[in-house]
Amino acid sequence: MPIALLAPLVRAFARAPRALAWALALVCAVALAAASSARADEGAAAIAPAVIDEVRGLALERAAPAARSARIEVTVGSLDPRLHLAPCDRIEPFLPPGVRLWGKSRIGLRCKEGRTAWTVYLPIVVKVWGRAIVVPAGAPAGAVVADADLAEGEVDLAEEPTTVFVDRKAVVGRTLTQTLRPGQAVRQAHLKSRQWFAVGETVKVVAAGEGFALESFGQAVTNGIEGQPARVRTEGGRIVTGVATGERRLELTL
Fold first, then answer.
1. Which of 25, 134, 159, 179 is 20–30 Å from 53 (CA)?
2. What one-character DSSP code corresponds to residue 187?
3. Distance of CA 93 to the CA centre of its chain
4. Is the pTM of this model over 0.90?
5. Of 153, 175, 190, at which residue does a domain stop?
């Protein structure tokens, strides 16, 4: 209710008996509260459908290189309803520095044309659908995976941060570290790490660079746990650090 319309009520309040005056005072209070609430609702965080489309398009474009040929699906969330933003004539979506569009993520929104500049972050979920090795019937933690336990299926590659397997031979005979639900993809983090070599064993050291690879042998200074850094003393007495990638094998990247 505009404040000007309250003037007659105020004048009536001055001439009215006490009981009626209290009633008029209550009406005035309710009217003012309604006006305040209306103004607050005008600033409530609501993003136009066109901006949502821009957010989705930006996410699809930026996620494509990592997804390669996989199918990408973007779900755009909503801002906190308690957030109140100043009116803005042009909102620009942007990708915040260091943000990876993989699984749960976010896209920034900034007001480019408005009385007050503001920046907020809109939650999104990026799903990347691709083929991977799954356990159709599920499997308990501690189970040793057999070939019959596995199949190939389409999964959300971005559901978890670790990589999936596309070759069942890399999974068969491995021990699960956690329970997998039916249809869940088998990932590197789900399998118990293998020890590829022990301290004192002779290890092949492979140093790979762009267009070349050099091989030598050395003695393990630390145990070689799959996928983890390990140290080897070369024949020349130099200690190198690489990643244990196979049976008595250490790889260096130059």
1. 159
2. B
3. 18
4. no
5. 190
